[in-house]
Amino acid sequence: MGLAANILLTFSLLAHVSPSFGADIPGELLLFTDVTGFKRSHPAEDNGLKGRDLVPAADLFYSLDRERFRFLGEYLVDKDVHDLERFQLGLRTGDATVWLGRFHNPIGYWNTQFHHGAYLQPSVSRPGIVAFEGGDGPLPMHLTGVLVEGIQEVKTTGLHYTVAAGLGPLLKDDLRPFDVLHPNGSHRLGATLRVSYQPVSYGLDEVGFSLSYTEIPANTVEVIRSRQSVAALFGNWQFGPVRGLAEIFYVQNRLEQPTDRITKRFINGYAQLEYPWSEKWTVFSRFEKTLVTAEDQYLDIFSKVVRDRVLIGGRYNFYRNMALKLEVSRDKLEKDRFNQIMLQWSAVFP
Amino acid sequence: MFLLLLNGYVWAEEVRTLVLAAGANSTIPPLTVQEARKLFLGIPVERNGATVIPILNTSDPLLYEVFLQKVTYMSSPAYETQLVSTVFRMGGKRPGNFVDAKALVEALRKNPNSVTYLWQDQILKFQGVKAVSVLWTGATE
């Protein structure tokens, strides 16, 4: 049986999963699944990018509360990767939670809001700047250590804060986060502070900033270590019927090279607009742009990361837990540019 | 004449009160609308040293609609997505859901830390439950 037939069979089985699936299990069990197909027009062969592919993925999430303790785990399996994404043990104290373990680096907005939950993500693709480490992303998306998150509420408004410190990634031909199941390598410390304001706490509208510092040991020809600082501003806001989501990142890498020390900086930003055409249909568009010097010895390592992109797409929600998304984009990489069309089915169970 | 018509129109709309309800043996103190909103968005709320357990009541479509509008400020699809999103980011558990009012009342009686929302007049109808706080009062068509 071929891959496509397997996917169709899986889809038809999952479509009949009962809403009460998992109801008898203590805690919360969520299964995010998606199948993403894409086709690119003439990507350069030396990039190692495929012209077309079909990628099924499943992300299993589990959370359990016992008194003031909370456990949270997430395991991802897709065609190329299987990874313990998160493994956290938390202690709730009032409106704050102290976590130990491996968690999503609270850098910016997209990374903490959607991550591997494709169904929750409005578009098919992630912005290039927040691409996953193994997917040629240039920023640390995971840390392993301590995370404290909480909220200060004043009437209906909320000021959220998150402080994280832990082991960051290594840099080889791409970033490699600390692997809890196979711990090795000399990972170094990273830290992030994230603060955001919500006019209605735990609502959708949110503005804020994050500041990160990560020491990234490297094993490449040009770089042996990077001290990376990232400042991000973000906002997700409703303007009449339109929802706008934007982030801007300022990234500075102080690079240690075999014979030199240099500092390189780049700025990346994106803005996404979503318009609900009807109860089931949403159309969206995103613009991404990177401002970078002609030669950035850090960013140039990530030759497959999308630097600039213009996309439009549509999302159709059906049943109560599934979405079909179509996205057409013009992508620019360091040394390549192409058109891309993506189609994705995604769901969350139960 | 206009005032009479207007008066008649207002009377045609029924003034109802949405309350947070718990089992009669519950010691949960009154919660504000904001606290109830947090609770039903999957955020832990503790009272008297115990975690309050929210239960969704979908036995009455109008009741559920008013709850969504006046407490969560969201549509049904947006609320469901937000619940999944909150649990996915922060852990926890989504509220249980009862479509049968009698089974819901039974669940409230069994667990004194659990709460749901009911019309105030239902409190009199169902024995063994009580109103904890008023969430909203207004006219429903």
Please provide a written account of the structure.
The complex is a heterodimer of chains A (350) and B (141). Chain A has helices at residues 3-14, 110-113, and strands at residues 28-40, 52-66, 69-78, 82-93, 96-104, 142-154, 157-167, 170-171, 175-176, 189-198, 206-217, 225-239, 242-256, 261-276, 281-292, 308-318, 322-332, 337-349. With 350 residues, chain A is mainly β. Chain B has 6 helices and 7 strands, in the order H-E-H-E-E-E-H-H-E-H-E-H-E. Chain B has a 5-stranded mixed beta sheet with strand order 5-4-6-1-7. A two-stranded antiparallel sheet of chain B has the order 2-3. Chain B is globular. The relative contact order of chain B is 0.30. The mean pLDDT of chain B is 89. The chains are: A mainly beta (350), B alpha/beta (141).
Low-confidence region ranges of chain A: 1-5, 18-22
How many strands of chain B?
A: 7
Main sheet summary of chain A: 16 strands, antiparallel, barrel
Shape of chain A: globular
Count of β-strands of chain A: 18
Q: Descriptors for this entry?
A:
heterodimer, A: 350 residues, mainly beta, 16-stranded antiparallel barrel, B: 141 residues, alpha/beta, five-stranded mixed sheet
Topology (SSEs and partners):
The complex is a heterodimer of chains A (350) and B (141).
Chain A: H1 3-14, E1 28-40, E2 52-66, E3 69-78, E4 82-93, E5 96-104, H2 110-113, E6 142-154, E7 157-167, E8 170-171, E9 175-176, E10 189-198, E11 206-217, E12 225-239, E13 242-256, E14 261-276, E15 281-292, E16 308-318, E17 322-332, E18 337-349
Antiparallel strand pairs in A: 1-2, 1-18, 2-3, 3-4, 4-5, 5-6, 6-7, 7-10, 8-9, 10-11, 11-12, 12-13, 13-14, 14-15, 15-16, 16-17, 17-18
Chain B: H1 2-12, E1 14-23, H2 33-40, E2 46-47, E3 50-51, E4 53-57, H3 61-72, H4 76-90, E5 96-98, H5 101-110, E6 114-119, H6 120-125, E7 129-140
Parallel strand pairs in B: 4-5, 4-6
Antiparallel strand pairs in B: 1-6, 1-7, 2-3
